[in-house]
Amino acid sequence: MSKALKIVECPRDAMQGMETFIPTKDKIAYINTLLECGFETLDFGSFVSPKSIPQMRDTAEVLQGLNISSKTKLLAIIANYRGAEDALEFQQIDFLGYPFSISEQFQLRNTNATLLETFQSIEKVQDLVRKKGKNLVVYLSMGFGNPYGEAWSPEIALHWSNRLVKDLGVEILALSDTIGCANTNKVTNLFTSLSAALPQVELGAHFHMRPGTASPLLTAAYDAGCRRFDTAFKGMGGCPMAQDDLIGNLDTEEFIAWLSSNNLENPLNLEAFEKASKAASIFFK
Domains along the chain? Predict the structure, then answer.
């Protein structure tokens, strides 16, 4: 796995569930503030059906207003081949993110497709992404368990990860705790087994959790070799299926505090980070 620490800030995940539509100009202003911080990547928007996620219907317009002058890369979420085609019309986008659930029920609910159908779709998307000289990030959703009573184990996650990597050539996998059920044992076992079996792959952590509970999970993931972490200011976003209104994304500020408490280098610009924190307090009030 990658040895350099990478922080992927996720304003898309933070915004997409908000019922009131956020004006495009406000999204642009907020994301431009984030672009000054030095995040490795910004998960800034998505190319999905506006009927499914109306908040993201203006992603193309938002993109045109961004100040693409920093080293921060842009990632857009897609859920099918059509979305990939739409996203790849924009040269500014570096990564496409494709959610792949190891829960059959969740995949059907999320994209109206089975695991096999989704895997076949990812294969086609991967071919397209390669032709365009871009990179694909696959999110292994329900990666730490699911609410449906389906079987879960590191072996199931490893099975699908093996197929994604060895059959399709996926190079980045983000292990996603969709419903906030991860614990330190699960995190340690999953990251350890995947990094041993797939040492060439960059593994990331996309945690959903209650505020103030991040430290043990972050330490477990980091000690198991993870160096890519998804965050969102104020812990906004998450999955409504978590059945706990307090569960959201890993709070960016909580993550930075964890870095400091463990004497790990903060790769962000401190002045820009403070500015972004204040902007987030207004943006998400």
Answer: 6-283 (3.20.20.70)
